[in-house]
Amino acid sequence: MGYPFEDLSAGQFEAFVVQAARLKLGKGVQGFADGVDGGRDARFEGTADGFPSYADPWSGITIIQAKHTNGYGHFSDPDFSGNGDTSVISKEIDRAKKLVAQGMQNYMVYSNRRLTAGANEAILDRLSSELGLARKCIHLCGIESLDEALREEPRIPHLAGMSPFDGPLIVSSRDLAEVVEAVAASVEAVADGRLAPPVPRTRLVEKNELNALSEEYSQRLMKQYASLLRTIKDFLADPINGRVRETYEACAEDFDLKIIAHREEHQTFDRAFNYLTDLLFARDTLLARNKRLTRAIVFYMYWDCDIGRSKDAVSE
User: How many other C-beta atoms can be found within 10 angstroms of the C-beta atom of residue 234?
Assistant: First the structure.
């Protein structure tokens, strides 16, 4: 199993890339800094330490880009290298043209995506043509290159100052996808609107105060998903769904512990809810296809006091 690059924050990934780039170019690689146009670049100026070859190493100004994704992707994905204006590469070309005008002579792009030979050739051709740089002055580094760097220097996470406790709040999308898929069949069997919304638990207001979930957000969640809460509760309570219940409990436990570990006191639960659901949609296509039910189940975890602070837990 490879290193979980998808679980890193953007800042952690940039720190990792700096260390990986130093293995290729030399210790003179400078970390990422905000550019005048809002982008973030790392920089190396001088002669590379034998890259791409000792016979013909890069020299001059090298700009390094890091493009992180919390999902599992490929360089060939349309959202990354497609010709559309919104793709990652299309947006970067506009920035890179300005960098070339400012003296950039070599261009390196890192991403935690799979890089096939075909995608590598196609993207190099496009970048070379649009930037006016020779193909030999452009280099793409995918997850394979990142893994290679880690094998060459296992201390990269330590050198990058990466602590496992500083990462983003990540939960298992696979477990939740299994629960969503199972509950979806039950929801479809219930006529829309047939079930009355469950009566909010008496401690919901207190729970919202303990977790800094705003009243407006709580009311909006109840309005959108109250009709599903009873369906989810009944489904999980049915003995025939015991295995799914166990998966749900394991997922909720993981969810809850990571919220405790990663959430700052000043952060509202509104923000945590949105961050988590957006992340789950990005990481799993089944969840992305069932956004309403996914949000409902995450809210159910909160409503049922499986995640987040509760009065009893605080008292204890």
Answer: 14
3-state secondary structure of 114: strand
Using the structure block, give the residue that is written with the tokens 């060459």.
Answer: 152
- 216, with CB counted inside 10 A (0-12, 13-18, 19+), is exposed
Q: How many whole angstroms separate alpha carbon 123 and alpha carbon 253?
A: 43
To which H or E segment does residue 42 belong?
strand 40-47
CA distances to 57, 86, 162, 169 from 165, in Å: 38, 33, 8, 10
Distance CA 112, CA 74 (A): 8
Q: Which tokens is 249 given?
A: 């409990």
Q: Cα separation of 110 and 145, whole Å?
A: 9
Instruction: Note the pLDDT tens digit of each residue in 263-306.
Output: 776 778 888 888 888 878 877 778 888 999 999 999 999 999 99
Confidence check: pLDDT of 7 > 50: yes
Residues 5, 20 contacting (CB under 8 angstroms): no
| Whether the predicted model's global pTM rises above the 0.90 cut | no
Could you give the CA distance from residue 183 to residue 190 in angstroms, rounded to a whole number? 11
Question: 263-277: b or e for each residue (b if 16 or more CB lie within 10 Å)?
Answer: beeeeebbbbbeebb
Average of per-residue pLDDT across 150-178: 76
Distance CA 281, CA 273 (A): 12
